[in-house]
Amino acid sequence: MRGCSGRVCERKGITVFVAWRELRFARGRFLLIGTVVALITVLVGFLAGLTGGLAAQNISAVLQLPGDRIVLQQPGNGDPSYATSSVSEKTATAWEQAEGVTSVTPIGIVQARASVGGGDDPTGVALFGLPQNASGTRSNPLFDLAPAGDGEVGLSSGAAADLGVTTGDTISIAGGDFTLTVVGDDLWYSHTPVIVMTPEAWSEASERVGGTGDATVLAVTGDADWSAVGEETGSVAETPLASLTALEAFRSEIGSLGLMIAMLFGISALVVGAFFTVWTMQRAGDIAVLKALGATTGSLVRDSLGQAAIVLVAGIGVGLAAVIGLGALAGQALPFTISPLTTLAPAVVMAVLGLAGAAFALRSVTKADPLTALGSNR
Predict the structure, then answer these.
(1) How far apart are CA 72 and CA 77, in angstroms?
(2) What is residue 87's DSSP assignment?
(3) Contact, 257 vs 51, CB < 8 A?
(4) The pLDDT of residue 4
(5) 139 in any annotated domain
(6) In the chain, where do the E strands start and end?
(7) Do residue 32 and residue 48 come from a single domain?
(8) Are strands 176-184 and 170-173 parallel, antiparallel or unpaired?
(9) How far apart are CA 165 and CA 97, in angstroms?
(10) What's residue 118's pLDDT?
(11) pLDDT value at position 17?
(12) In terms of domains, do 174 and 255 share one?
């Protein structure tokens, strides 16, 4: 071996030999823990993919809102909410006149029902009232759906698929008929597909479904004193990402699913740590012999962590392949997302936590006294 000679190389070779020998002759045990790791990887991967898919169906349209800040109404009690926010024209004007503000785009959001030909089976949709050619909206998939006339609408691909319509068809929304002029990307708001209308048409539709007709939020660009203007206008300005907490469904879903993923990560570390703790205790005699022959503590630790790494890589690799294969099938029926964030990231976290659990189990290796372990006290 490069970098060693004589007895040192011999001792390193002994520890490596023992590591591979145990993997080879204790196949059943290592296969069992590898299978458990693979199953946990499948569970974590599916939960991560489902979490990503559900999140996309909650916030994909909101993430396309332009501006440096999203302004919502600040209620007298509680936190701001997209569902209850209503920004008056007076508030919008105050933001437009505020120092440091360069543009303000009023945006209306309300959930309603849409049908084709006045059918008896309406589809739940999210109505967005958006102006054409708003500032900072070039190549924005949400604003690309904005129609030119009040009697026209733009549909996300999900809404078009649910309604079974194509461009030129007539859609009934909140008691009014509209012509479909454009079908765009698959955008969602609070688990309902998006339909975009002109601000005037949206205001009338909002009033027909019990709303105020005022804009729901303001997309504001600039470098204003956000807190001061918000206090003066009875509103709150959040960054687009921070404003996602104003979606109640998003908070509850992501919170519960994230907790389950975190618990599975903890379980994986405990399972791997427990397995290697028991395994290390059973190897006490072998470790004692190796130490008596001159093996260093470092080489024994590397030997044991190498075993754990092989088991983890094999188990996580099998589980990851299953997640990608089965996830592609599940995506046809469920909101499931396959991406590096939902596959590779959980796999890396599991590998790190698994190695941490295995490292914790090596205390007996680092503190082992060869004479005691060989039974000299008997």
Answers:
(1) 14
(2) B
(3) yes
(4) 45
(5) yes
(6) 69-73, 101-115, 123-129, 152-156, 170-173, 176-184, 188-189, 192-197, 217-222, 235-238
(7) yes
(8) antiparallel
(9) 42
(10) 64
(11) 57
(12) no
Predicted pLDDT at 157: 94
Beta bridge partners of 110: 127
How many domains are there within the chain? 2
Residue 78 has what pLDDT?
A: 82
d(CA 51, CA 101): 36
Strand pairing report for 235-238 and 217-222: unpaired
Are the beta carbons of 103 and 156 closer than 8 angstroms? no
Chain CA centroid to CA 165, Å: 31
Comparing C-alpha atoms, which of 334, 275, 311 is closest to residue 41?
311
- The residue among 206, 239, 272 that closes a domain is 239
The pLDDT assigned to 112 comes to: 94
Same domain as 160, residue 216: yes
246 inside domain: no
- The reported pLDDT for the residue numbered 76 is 83
Domain that holds residue 86: 66-239
pLDDT recorded at residue 30: 79
Distance CA 334, CA 339 (A): 15
The position carrying tokens 């079974």 is: 164
332 falls within a domain? yes
- Is the domain of 77 the same as that of 225? yes
Query: Do 280 and 304 reside in the same domain of the chain?
Result: yes
Residue 215: DSSP 8-state: B
Does residue 229 sit in the same domain as residue 340?
A: no
Question: What was the pLDDT predicted at 220?
Answer: 95
378 lies in some domain: no
Residue 171 in contact with residue 123, Cβ under 8 Å? no
b/e 54-81 (16+ beta carbons within 10 angstroms → b): bbbbbbbbbbbbbbbbbbbbbeeeeebe
Residue listed under structure tokens 């991967």: 45
Judgement on whether residues 186 and 274 belong to the same structural domain of the protein: no
Strand partners, 153: 180
48, 79: one domain: no
Mean pLDDT, 10 residues at a time, the chain of 378 residues: 43 54 74 88 90 89 93 90 93 94 95 83 93 84 94 95 93 92 94 95 93 94 93 94 88 83 84 78 70 72 80 92 91 86 90 84 65 55
Q: How many of the other CB atoms lie within 10 Å of CB of 237?
A: 24
Please report the pLDDT score of residue 19 as a whole number: 62
pLDDT for residue 7: 45
